[in-house]
Amino acid sequence: MLTLESFKAARSVLQGVLRPTPLIHSPYLSKSCGNSVYLKPENMQVTGAYKIRGAYFKCSTLTEEEKARQEKQAEDAKPVLDFVKETLGDRIKEARVSKILKTAPVCMTADGPMSLEMEKYFSKLEASSPMGPMKAEHVLELNPAAAPFAALKSALDSGDRDRAAKYAQVLYHQALLIAGLPIEDPAAYTELVCSLMN
Question: 185 with 117, same domain?
């Protein structure tokens, strides 16, 4: 059961990890609600959401056995992750084993100062921006316990690099869709998926 003490303990673990997010008064919402409404812009966090709180706290409370298991998973997955990075090139900064996915096969996260949410926001201003598109550093996170990862590894282990590359492309595009980011060429993605159904 959650107690005030457990919240205080979590807060102490997160001290110095989170970016301070100030409360911002919203005149529009205040007027609409007939009261003072303040917003807390958690999209200013590195992850673009409040979710870093729970994820970081969970990682900080892992047992040594759990940490060792995660390290072994990452080590075992290295050939697959290296292949995915090689296949996708500059479209991602890195491919890594996810520490948060339980059932989903893939997700997109961001490294660096710009979050995925910020990228989406700036893409709406792109037409009027002299700087061109502003992009986050995309990190493709894969779930090694999911069937698509096993299929990708099996294709790579059997020497079918063409099929493995197609799987990597599909997972990349799925991660973009899940994150609410656009696919560069929807028609090519459709052809790619259809080619795997032959």
Answer: yes
